[in-house]
UniProtKB/TrEMBL annotation, chain A:
Residues annotated as domain Solute-binding protein family: 70-444
Alphabetized InterPro entries for the sequence: Peptide/Ni-bd, SBP_5, SBP_5_CS, SBP_5_dom
Family: Belongs to the bacterial solute-binding protein 5 family.
Protein name, as recorded: Dipeptide transport system substrate-binding protein
Record-linked Gene3D superfamilies: Dipeptide-binding Protein, Domain 1, Dipeptide-binding Protein, Domain 3, Periplasmic binding protein-like II
Membrane is among the record's keywords: no
Keywords from the UniProt entry: Signal
Chief location bin: periplasm
SUPFAM superfamilies: Periplasmic binding protein-like II (SSF53850)
Keyword Signal: yes
UniProt source species: Labrys monachus
Signal peptide coordinates: 1-25
Compartmental location: Periplasm
UniProtKB/TrEMBL annotation, chain B:
Family: Belongs to the binding-protein-dependent transport system permease family.
Gene3D superfamilies assigned: MetI-like
Cell membrane found in the keyword field: yes
Keyword Magnesium: no
Residue ranges of every copy of the ABC transmembrane type-1 domain listed in the record: 96-328
Protein name per the record: Dipeptide transport system permease protein
Location in the cell: Cell membrane
UniProt keyword terms in alphabetical order: Cell membrane, Membrane, Transmembrane, Transmembrane helix, Transport
TM regions (residue ranges): 12-30, 102-123, 135-158, 197-220, 259-279, 310-331
Membrane topology per record: Multi-pass membrane protein
Amino acid sequence: MSKLFKTGLLAAGFAALLGSTGLSAKTLVFCSEGSPENFQPALNTTNTTLDADRPAYDQLVEFTPGTTDVVPGLAEKYEVSKDGLEIVFHLRKGVKFHSLKGFKPTRDFNADDVLFSFNRQWKDDNPYHKVSGGAYDYFNDMDMPKLLKSIEKVDDYTVKVTLNEPNATIIPNFAMDFASIESAEYADYLLKAGTPEKIDQEPVGTGPFQFVAYQKDAVLRYKAFDQFWGGRPKIDTLVFAITPDAEARYAKLQKNECQIMVGPLPADLKGMQANPDLNVMSQQGLNDAYLSFNMKKPPFDKKEVRQALVMAIDKKNIIEDVYEGTGASATTLIPPFMLGYNDKIPEYPYDPEKAKQLLASAGVKTPLDVDLWYQPVYRPYNPNGKRMGELMQADLAKIGVNAHLVTYEWGDYRKRLQNGEATISQMGWTGDNGDPDNFFFLFDCATARDGGQNYARWCNKDYNDRFLKAQQTFDKDERAKLYREMQQITHDEVPYLNIAHSVVYVPMRKNLVGFKVSPLGRFEFHQVELK
Amino acid sequence: MLTYALKRIAQTVPTFIALVALTFFALRLVPGDPVEVRVGEHGISPERLAEFRHQLGLDLPVWQQFLHYLWQILHGDFGISVVSQQSVLSEFFARFPATIELSAVSLVLAVGLGVPLGIVAALSRGTFVDYTVTALAVIGNSMPIFWWGILLVLLVSLKLDLTPVDGRIDNVAYYFDPDQTTGFMLWDSFWSDQDGAFLSALSHLILPSIVLGTIPLAVIMRITRSAMLEVLGEDYVRTARAKGLSPLRVVGLHALRNALIPVVTAIGLMVGTLIAGAVQTETVFSWPGIGKWLIDSFNRRDYPALQGGVLIISILVTLVNLSVDLLYGIINPRISHGR
């Protein structure tokens, strides 16, 4: 009982102390929405997990926070050969790795770490290849096994990457999370200790924050890494308070139990913006919601029919109703801040009368019955697929098209789309590396095959030639020109209707400064400060 | 007694097999493919899809998958979580103390308030007090947990600023090394040398335990009331009264003892209700327990985790029921003699 009394007494004293002086160590609490799957960026694809892994790691090149610009990271500089087949990375010297209970690094970061990090994902014979399930989705998705010919150590601070074919997007790829650099020495240590899987649970990297502890589903704790090569962070402790409920996140933010949160509910935005203690930042997201017309299925093989549907759908209404102000109308596949965005592409007007004429001129007899597939789950680029489907259904009815709403469980939905089962279907995309190629590949001829992601099954030679050429062109202006032309072709051929780029809102306390909203949807805290 | 115990234990074997089958096949009926869900928008080549399937054993016929699973369970292996790649058993027990702690406090709250309120209602039968208590029980029993939780957060945490919003302890002020603690926050914080930690843990428990305890509280209240009413009409109570015993003695000693029997039975059966309620309560309050873990696993179609989690819970509930039955046998020998 005396212990209880003592605890109570001291708690009161402690609370008074807190009230008067505040905590001396600067702790930033981030209200995140879910638990990380593990602490290995190479194994993960979700932002929730990557946000939690990222503080510990660096890549050879990195995205400047708040942009998709690639700048040197662990590689001080790099050179690309004229033919685009060789990239030489010159590594930064004196970069320290974190230490953990039981492990203290004896050497600085060098080429061995780079080789280990990529070989783990690439080479079957790497002892870590199969550890923790060994599913390296991003490495494979970004076509790395096909692109890479070799990764060699020239000396301790030089790494040469040889490609099978030139590829202009390879540099942004090296800035992605899957390309995070791990410690080869730590890997050896764990292998000897017989606990290799720990590498994915207790991260050792070179990043601005050092892992302290993770309590499952509750809290994740990092501390500032004093020896970080890019300069010690301005906060001392970084805490991820895992708070799956959006209402609870907002409540915590209001009470200053956290200083920044992810994923506000659109309905709460007005209140947040009116709150004098909060600052709501926003940026157009690196994504696109679109509606594909399967051109293998008549009458959608006819351009007039596709145009008619596009003109029959009142996009403005969808943006207002479905996105509640958190979306911007999309005219092309890529958002305006990306390389090669064509600002000359006009919107198709909302014109049901013209749409009817187009249908008639295409010889389509109304009423026309068609299945309209809507997304069954919330996606960052489409908050409510069902509602969007209903609005489209109502619009289409006005031109004599009876759209029947269809959906499936999310995994099933995607599988069926890839099998080409749908006629008109909602889908969307979030960019991975900030490169336009990462969007345009969705409609190239290679992905129009069965099982591919080109749900319009659209294969256009003019588009495809330019797409392939852009992939092998390192000149930015030349690539931008090609992409602009491709957007024009797409606009003319209407294989799909671009609906919206969502707007990402990040609410935070006013005393948090230096945070940049990332178009890649990232939460990064190296540069932030608590005033 | 021994024969009864053995018989009773033997009876649980088919229950276990049925449980394994039920959790296994029920999940197969849920639409969605764990491999597809894992992939996301990015798509995947058919070869890699097949590889994943193979790794998870999903390429085998379902009956083979089932036999394989049964064999694994018999060896205490509940599989590996698809998401975290860690053993389901260790994932489960990492969250178990949080749920137990929350359920235990909720139950204490429910019994501590439910029994006295039930007694009061019975003793004042037909009066305003009785109607109020009964009405409250009905409301409590039909309250949607999610709504009730959010309502309390808005009112108590935000408006009145009396309790924290969620979590188990103030994460900024207090830090516990998960390797060196029991996982029971009240216990860990009490014995830690961080002053104020215990109070913080306690204050975090208030709202979630009220939310989770509401339905059991309502149930216990109603059962106590009707059991009490029944007992009060019995001959021995009348005799006790006639003997001139004080009302307190009559109610407290004679009536309550017998009235509590159905209440205790109900509490035994409430384990399941608590776990089901925990799924929602834990989500609202970001309580890092089993309930939230199961929901996450379901959303990610983490078959092994979900299957293993549900099964471990079912086994635990079955074991609790078994021990309750055996205890009854000891308390009331008539049961064990098969009468």
